[in-house]
Structure to design on (226 residues):
């Protein structure tokens, strides 16, 4: 039990907003240490610094010896010329990618692992295999218009649920397994429908995907490394 009420850690947004936005994971033993007083928590943001004093937006002041800036990152690609970014990003800076992988106007570029998810390991691995199939000509390239349209439609759908999102619309949560299934269908390697029901309704088991993953690797003549 997390006892969020007791600890004063009830999130400022509802569970639906969190499910469709950025998901955070609980560190083992975190809430127990909060209850024991070994970790002190405060719900606020940093307003300013005054020497070693940290001033929070709620007016609280904290004396600090060390501050760790673990506030995330920005997905930037400064190496690309502006002429490419015009098709890659919308006016809000959202990435417009086909299946979260292919950009418009740059046929030789693909993104793998550029969408956030708590199942990013499995989604990134199958995205990499999808790219292999694409490069071998087994998956046709959509037109630039189709790429931009799919990317735009996805951002529009996501924006209905994640008003405070920071990952530029590329988070596949909570539909990561649906995304993986889409990639598998493109690779003509879908899992049987009834084997997917537990992943949709109960608990995701990456082991269900091992045989199909191995099949795709062998089909592409790839060598698995550890």
């Amino acid at each position: 039990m997390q006892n969020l009420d007791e600890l004063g850690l009830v999130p400022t947004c509802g569970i639906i907003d969190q499910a469709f936005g950025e998901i955070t994971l609980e560190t083992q033993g975190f809430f127990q240490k909060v209850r024991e007083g070994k970790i002190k928590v405060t719900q606020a943001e940093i307003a300013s610094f005054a020497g070693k004093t940290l001033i929070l937006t709620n007016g609280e002041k904290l004396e600090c010896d060390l501050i760790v800036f673990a506030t995330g990152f920005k997905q930037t690609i400064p190496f690309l010329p502006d002429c490419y970014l015009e098709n890659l990003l919308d006016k809000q800076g959202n990435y417009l990618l086909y299946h979260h992988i292919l950009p418009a106007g740059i046929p030789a570029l693909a993104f793998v692992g550029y969408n956030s998810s708590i199942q990013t390991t499995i989604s990134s691995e199958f995205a990499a295999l999808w790219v292999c199939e694409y490069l071998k000509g087994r998956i046709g390239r959509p037109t630039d218009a189709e790429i931009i349209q799919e990317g735009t439609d996805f951002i529009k759908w996501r924006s209905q649920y994640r008003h405070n999102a920071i990952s530029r619309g590329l988070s596949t949560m909570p539909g990561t397994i649906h995304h993986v299934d889409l990639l598998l269908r493109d690779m003509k390697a879908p899992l049987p429908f009834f084997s997917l029901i537990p992943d949709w309704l109960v608990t995701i088991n990456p082991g269900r995907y091992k045989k199909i993953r191995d099949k795709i690797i062998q089909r592409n003549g790839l060598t698995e490394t550890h």
Observations:
- The CA atoms of residues 182 and 190 lie 8 Å apart.
